[in-house]
Amino acid sequence: MGQYQILLFDADGTIFDFDLCEKEALSQTFKKYNYPLDDEIMKKYEHINHSLWKQYELGQIDRNAVIYTRFGALFREIGIEDDGIAFEDDYQETLGMQHFFIKDAAEVLQNLYRKYELYIVTNGVTKTQYRRIQESKVDQYVKKIFVSEETGYQKPMVEYFDYCFARIENFDASKTMIIGDSLSSDIKGGNNAGITTCWFNPQKLNNTTDAIVDIEIHSLKQLYDILCFF
């Protein structure tokens, strides 16, 4: 079994292909409202959304400031008179039904849960994340799901991880590893919490941040070797 017993998995970008989930949910919601959506509008939205989530990670704004301002800001830019609040609710409802997997994610979770304690650690909207995890059947492989909204904190805050650790039975930091694609939230969060970090980096990007990567993988199946699974 190796050194690790407790595995903390990020959800979006690690288990789920969030780009694909987001694109499908946006497409359906824009269509419902009969609003235009093209590549240029998508880029504007991505810029606004990324900026807000980054502020959220840094603790500068709360979750509501992210989700209930992003579409209003976008619509102002593209000349649509809509504050975006009802649109956001419909988008979240649609997003909750999207659960496209990252390559090999379902298989890896199915195999690992038999020998390890798996948990999901995710920044996001509680109702949406729970629905996606349940509809994808991922919930059968994990012991608990920790969504930032319900904890009152978010990755990479140490308080978020303290909240999680206090709710993991017989928690041992030396036997715990976080697996995630985000250097700023997953890896930096693992650093703050004093646990081993595993950066899921399928695009083989360079780490230009101050986050310390203990282990780097380009495929989720590489976890088998790291964990001495077979």
Automatic annotation (TrEMBL):
InterPro entries: HAD-like_sf, HAD-SF_hydro_IA, HAD-SF_hydro_IA_YjjG/PynA, HAD_2, HAD_sf, PGP-like_dom2, Pyrimidine_5'-ntase_YjjG. Gene3D superfamilies: HAD superfamily/HAD-like, Putative phosphatase, domain 2. Pfam families: HAD_2. GO terms for molecular function: 5'-nucleotidase activity. NCBIfam families: HAD-SF-IA-v1, YjjG_YfnB. PANTHER family: PTHR47478, PYRIMIDINE 5'-NUCLEOTIDASE YJJG (PTHR47478:SF1). This is Noncanonical pyrimidine nucleotidase, YjjG family. It comes from Variimorphobacter saccharofermentans. The lineage of its organism: Bacteria, Bacillati, Bacillota, Clostridia, Lachnospirales.
